[in-house]
Specification:
single chain, 3-stranded mixed beta sheet, 9 helices, globular
Amino acid sequence: MTGGAGFIGSHIVDSLIRKGFEVVVIDNLSSGSLENLRYSLGSKNFRFVKADLKYWGDWVREFKGSDIVMHYAANPEVRVSSIEPRIHFNENLVATFNVLEASRLNDVKLHVFASTSTVYGDAKVLPTPEDYHPLEPISVYGSVKLASEYLYITYSKLYGFRSLILRYANIIGPRSGHGVIVDFIRKLRTNPYELEILGDGSQKKSYLYVCDAVDATLHLLGIFMKSAKDYDIYNVGNNDWITVREIADIVVEEMGLRNVKYKFVPKTPDGRGWPGDVKFMLLDISKLKATGWSPKLSSREAVRKTVRHLLGKEVCETCL
């Protein structure tokens, strides 16, 4: 697994190790941490390789003899892509190409790729299904993820790969190190009387708890392995959505604060948090639910549980 020391990746690794699989993680630790892997580090079925996928190197030989490549390595900061687009081109697209080439040279045919809801851009259909067109990302992050999807599809048709592409909504929970919840908690710890909110607060998106995301991922992998498709695409998200202002209310409540003044800072004329921020996102997960899977927690429940964990009010380090 690439990016296995990151937020989502480390939870998937823990789950795979508990199920008895042998897992090799390749990660440069730029956004991940060995602390995220403390549950798996002592396992005889686990091995960690520190390497940067942007550069061809000794890590390529690690693919030899592998049954599945789960590619979760990426720079997750969408905002960064509007300021330093080259970072996302290199870390999210060049790295993906290198992973595909390493797989081709070592004859690894089965793949899972972590894509994103941002490939849809400002979708005119909500909830947005997998077959929505045209796909018009509004961030460099979304565009390089979409380009990576097309690379996977091409390698599937050209080299006999079988690729499961998962378009994740906003995934939250233990080990998350960025995003609106982390940002709000940090700001309120600094100033408990005023909270700066990027955007006008009406931004509305779907959030999925990380344990639900892991469960959906492995569920879909099992289904895909039994199918005859060369590639398939699924939305992985929730049934509902929640506004940024409502998230702020939950954070304030869980922190036990009163009379917090909200300072809204829109970065675009239509009230987005930053240029390239998708203001409204709700994925259509009917295709996923048709396989027999449903999320256990709603967006609001996922937000509250994440806040409680980050505040130390709830212990839920790993998905059981």
